[in-house]
Amino acid sequence: MVERVLLAEPRGFCAGVEMAIKALTWMVRVFDPPVYCYHEIVHNRWVVQTFEKVGVVFVDDIDEVPEGAPVMLSAHGSAPDVVERAGSRAAVVIDAVCPLVTKVHHEVRRMAAKGFEILYVGHEGHDEAVGTVAVAPEAITLVEPSDRLDGFDPAEGTPVALVAQTTLGVYEWESVLDEARRRFPDLWTPRRGDLCYATTNRQSAVQELARRCDLVLVVGSESSSNTQALVRVAAEAGASARRIDAAADIAEEWLRGAEVVGVTAGASAPDHLVQEVIDRLAPRAGVEVLSVTSEDEYFPLPPQLRAFVSVLQHLVEASVTARALGRPGRLEGDREWSATEALASLRS
Questions:
Q1: Three-class SS of residue 345?
Q2: Catalytic residue check, 128
Q3: Taking the model in full, what pTM does it have?
Q4: Are residues 286 and 302 in the same domain?
Q5: Pick from 124, 149, 183: which residue ends a domain?
Q6: Alpha carbons 153 and 151: distance in angstroms, whole number
Q7: Is the domain of 167 the same as that of 117?
Q8: What average pLDDT does the structure give for the chain?
């Protein structure tokens, strides 16, 4: 029997996910289905299925988008040739890339232009890694955190830069960083680290959970890199840790002897799934929030979408795009409108 649940704070949706979900919600409200999205908008099965039910078609090849159809590019960032091809075939292209991923793309482009050999610490095949490597494929080498710098041997005298996938575990990044600094004394790294603030905050929270809990449950999909990192961080801190998509995934044997259970969620996991997990655990002594920091970051909707909807607000009267004359509309109040509310509107 679970005595108590410790609930991590912060957890769940980050600013980049909030922006991307709301942006795609605008797309399905404005356009008749199907609306196309290149790659999953975020790596969460429940979110993807919610959008699929209202007519979003997720594709892994931009050439699958019919000529003249509206398309959104996912939060993970897209290769330059994908952005170019999308623009040549789609009627409207909205790029919902997270600004923190855009920052890494800029770093890669800038250091490649300066003649650096670039080490990119990331996970092979992850959407973010694929898009980032494609920015300067001739100058970049992807290294898995577990492999460290095995096989990386730049030409003598060539300067080396080190950048990272934003959703890595802090310990994964630091282990490679330490080795790179030993091998390359003049190593260039960004002044502000590449790891996403939400990733590091959630990892700090899960470390605290691990110290105080018999079991840590991380809500999020298998394809979510930051979710997987939370599980690894909890395990590194000595906890028994499990990733689950939803409450139904909890096995009864996990709970035997687990008086205190920690609960958190990856940056793309909806909070209602967390609440369902708590309901399933039914802790006798209730829920205690374990807060390590607060977050108030906000990323505006993509500029292409803001411009497009602003024009529509003056032309049409229809649900989400309408506003009373002389009064602000939903677009102007974007900061007060959450991704959770956006998803709920699609289900109503």
A1: helix
A2: yes
A3: 0.89
A4: no
A5: 183
A6: 6
A7: yes
A8: 92
